[in-house]
Every structure is written in C-alpha cells, then in structure tokens.
Amino acid sequence: MNRRGRAAVAALLAATATLGVIGAPVAAAAAEPRRGTEQQARAWLPQPTGPYPIGTTSLQLTDDHRDDPWTPGQHRTLMVSLWYPTTRPATGNDRAPYMLPAAADHFGSADSVAQSENRFEPGRTDWAGIRTHARADAPALPGGRRPVVLYSAGFGDPRTWGTALVEDLASRGYVVVTVDHTYDASEVAFPDGDLATSVLLAQMARPGIDMGAFLRKILQTRVDDTRFVLDRLAGLRHDAQLPAGLAASLDLDRIGMVGHSGGGSTALQTMHDDPRLKAGVNLDGQLHFPGPDGTGVHLSTVAEDGLTRPFLLMGTQESDSGSYHQQPGWDALWQHSTGWHADVTLAGSRHGSYTDAQSLLPQLAHQGAISGEALTRDVGDVRPDRAVLSTRSYVASFLDRWLRGHDDHLLDGPSPRFPEMVYER
Question: Where does the secretion signal sit in this chain (predicted)?
C-alpha cells in the first residue's frame, strides 16, 4: 500500500506501504505536458556487480484451473521473466528494454499507479528508452544447475520495478524469475498487444470497502500466483522453447524468494504455505491487516505460526516501519519462528529505497521530472549508491548462505562495511 492507502487504514497498517497495497487516487494529478514542449528525462540502471553477463526471456503463463479473481469469467494469466547468466554481454541495441513501449507509456502517464505513488511528472520521462544490461533470449551459460530465486514487486508495481536487484542476482549466478500479478500491477503487457491495467484503485474507491478483507484477497491472489509459477517451473525444465540451456539450468531443489513491500509479504506467506521455498527475503513488507471494523490487528498466518526456514527482514526508516519491534506482524513472526532469521534497517531510507526508485528517481530529479520533495519522500536521504550496494550485498549474502552454502558472515552482526545498515537480532 502506498502512503495514501496507509492513511486510509493508519490505525492498523501503519506503514501499509510496507505491505505494498495502493491507496486512494491522488486528488489532483498533474496535467500531462504536451509532447515536444519539454525534453524527456533519461535514466540508467546501475551496472550489475557479478562476474556473469545476463540474459532474459519472458513467458506468458495461463492457469487453466483458476479463474482470475479480479476479472471473473477468464482464466488467470500471468507474465513472468527469467534472468540468468549467459555467454556474452549485451551491448548497444542488444540490451533488452526495461519496459515494453505500451507498458512504458502507461507507467509514465497520469493514470498509472506509479505516478500516483511516486508523483513524477506525467509524460516527462522516457521510460521506454531505459535499457537493461541483459540480452533477450540469449543462451544460458553452461555450468550445471543453478539456484532459482522468485521476485515479487510491491502491490501495484510491475515486475520491472526491481530490475536492478534482479540483474545483480543473475550476474552472480542465480536464475531469477520475476512475476507480474495481473490487474494488481500498474500494467502488464502481453505478447498479443493487450495491456492489462491495475484494478486496485477502482476497488479501493468502492463505498464501504472492508480494507482488511481487500488486503487479504490481494495477498492470497499473489500467493496463489506464486505457487502456480512454482508448479510451472517444473514443466519449464523440459521446455524446448526456452533459450538454449536455460531449462537444464533450473535447480528446483534450491528455490528462494525475494519481494518488496507486498511482494515481501508474498514471499514469506508463500514460504509458510509451500515447502518448496527454502529461504525468503522481505524488503519492507508488512504481515498484518486491519480488523473487520478497520481497527485492531489481524495477523497473517505466517506471522501467527512463524517459519522453520531462514528469512531476512529488511526495513526502512518510515516512521512506522523499521525493525520488527515497530511492526506487530514482524514481531509476531520473530517470536514464533524457529528457523534462522535476522533483521536490518537501512538508515536514511524510505519505502522506495529497495526498488528501482532508488537509482532512477534521483536521475529524474536532476532533470526536473520529479520534485525534490517527492524524491525525498520516496527514497529518503540515503546516498543512492550506498543504498543500492547495501541492498544487493545483504540479499546476495543471505541467498548465498542458504541456497549455496557459502557464508561470507555479513549477516553475523553489524558490519563496518555497511554503517548505514542497522542490525538487530
């Protein structure tokens, strides 16, 4: 949930931004500037730090056994992308686009969830011009099976909004599967040209909505999506339509999950519901909901029951986020879990600091496409390069430890290498 959604249910969700649900529409969105009156802002993703070049490919997946909960009468259909080590780096126009043109146009418009949340100026950024560091449909790097990591973005965010972290993991040797949750994500572009846009804002505007039930439906839908993707991954190991060598590289005995905001909530709830996930990272995603009357605390089942497998909580310095001491869902999870767990908070950060907002929005601010006030509200005052490096290092350290058996001891306690990370155990 974003900040406007948090205000609507402040008594319980407090920082429902950490749960990642979108809130009420912005009261008065800025008028979209006329084309040609201003030069569009440009931005670049940070370079991955691992030793491997990256490939990427996208797939459409349809669950023939489940109706779409947001659009009754049709089967649930998702878009996923796989990011993986490949044989040679992408250069120039070989670099895959950050967003497809139709998705980029909507993402940057006054009608998108992204504009409502981040308040960049509509139409002022060339989102379609941003390039990844990956080569589309490249052959997978030989070398045997590799651990798999699922990535889920925040409620209302597209799967692309965590690309910098995803690319870094792929460059370190992981196969990362990013999931777009259709009609939840701001927009999802399909191969046939269809663009499915989020219904959550309209749902939020319904009179008398039960906010707790609404949030639980979103989370349950995402968990169902994730378990469906896990089911399909087994079939993908024999899919000849994937880029050469990719199917054989999937090690489905070593699967972890990382998510931001509502995606972080999804990661841990899916761990609770599905033993195929061996480890999970929650980037600022809450685990509690409003009660039936909008007051009180309703805990998710993962918070009530705890986890027996390892997880990492990474909080931000929103006034009602931070460590597990400040969140009833995180605190309950902490007390009820028997598996390894740790909690860190990025000093000077805000909810967007664990997303591509941290690297892209400062560039847009320098070009006048987002105000300084909106920038600080979204990503705080932590140095962007330090926030990106810290996030990548802690997520990789956790996954290396629990999916590869390589422990660099970064998560043993406070580290002088990362003074901006406040460690709690």
Answer: 1-30
